[in-house]
Amino acid sequence: MIKPSENPDLWNFLDSLQYGDLLSGKVVAIERFGVFVDLDDGPGHPVLPGVGFITLPELSWRSFEDPSEIVQIGQSVSCMFLQFDTWNGEARLSLRETLPDPFQAVADSIRVGQELTTRVTKLLPFGVIVEISDGVEAVIHEKELIGEPATTAKQNGIKVGDDIAAVVLGLDRERRTVTLSQRQARTNLG
To answer: In terms of pTM, does the model score above 0.90?
Structure first.
């Protein structure tokens, strides 16, 4: 824990920040749990690689396996300030909040009953995850997949990378979810 008395310049800087402030800096470390940013304005951190920190969910709207798919060490970034982490003495940041939300564009362009072409990105024990558009994914539950309701996607012959036609059953903007059914689709892309 960084105490205010040990580093008053850092504490004063972080305490002056407001939610929504835009901060710029360079990516200085990429870890499995997030990304450290050395901020252009403000003091250095006495222990951590940078005063700014971006958690994995705040890196991008789209899903990714490794943070280096989104940012690289040395890359300049502009991020939104979320909160002052008083335990670590760091600015929690969001890169994602500075980018357009692809879900809203998809939500504006689809309607219930519409048939979409989706691509399978992951097989789950209870269904599949499909990509509707770059950065927007949805789950098709096993009961909405073609085939026997009790079988898994793998047993139905579905593989990652397959194109699947699906009908939009529901759209929830607040929760950022789309409910889909392969069973109700008129086209079978396989």
So the answer is: no
